[in-house]
Amino acid sequence: MSVPSVTPDWSYEREHWRRGYFRVAGVDEAGRGAWAGPVTVAAVILPGTAAEYPFRDSKQLSATQREAFAAQVREVAVSWGVEHAWPDEIDRLNILGATHAAAARALARLDPAPQALVTDYLKLRTDLPLTAPPRADALSYSVAAASLLAKTERDRLMLELDAQHPGYGFAGHKGYGAPAHRAALRDLGVSEVHRRSFAPIRALLNEPERLL
């Protein structure tokens, strides 16, 4: 199985290890920019043995690679958790607030609990030591592992939503603003799994005759 040339390492985790925090959870999300479906957040604690893993940012991998690596994450992780914020929560809290809420729930699932966090520029409100660099999903093994779980779990849910709400093409575009999604919204209108607070959906609700 080939993997991209960008290779994560333990640099961010080691900053916490040096301070005595050995259970470092990587946190990442999938679906923040989508117009429909949940935003999904995963948290993963990998063994602090500085081993090398094949895990990479999920966006760099094929669907087959993501599924294979996600299975490996679940097998080797000290603990992991995945949680979702659905459109009603997103519309109520806004996308950032809902992402934070889902992250808190995912972290609460970890047993043993984390002592420190590394996120992909997600500046969570937490009392734990937090490192939140940009592109951490491509640079940190822990965050890459979380990105794999978040992406594969959200994709699975979007396949289910595609069966429940046929015609929107959720299986293909995963709820993002692709041309096929825009066309389906013009033909079918807004479904119960669309995020009504997002500008394109809000505009369609306010002006049904308007082309997206």
Characterization of this structure:
This protein has 212 residues and is an alpha/beta fold. It folds into two domains: 11-157, Ribonuclease H-like superfamily/Ribonuclease H (Nucleotidyltransferase, domain 5, 2-Layer Sandwich); 162-206. Helices cover 43% and strands 13% of the residues. The chain is built from nine helices and five strands, in the order H-E-E-H-E-H-H-E-E-H-H-H-H-H. The protein has helices spanning 11-17, 63-76, 87-93, 95-108, 136-139, 141-164, 170-173, 179-188, 199-206; strands at 24-30, 39-45, 79-85, 116-119, 130-131. Strands 3-2-1-4-5 form a five-stranded mixed beta sheet, sandwiched between helices. Strand 1 (24-30) and strand 2 form a beta hairpin. Helix 2 (63-76) crosses helix 6 and helix 3 crosses helix 4. The radius of gyration is 18 Å and the shape is elongated. The model has no long low-confidence stretch (mean pLDDT 93).
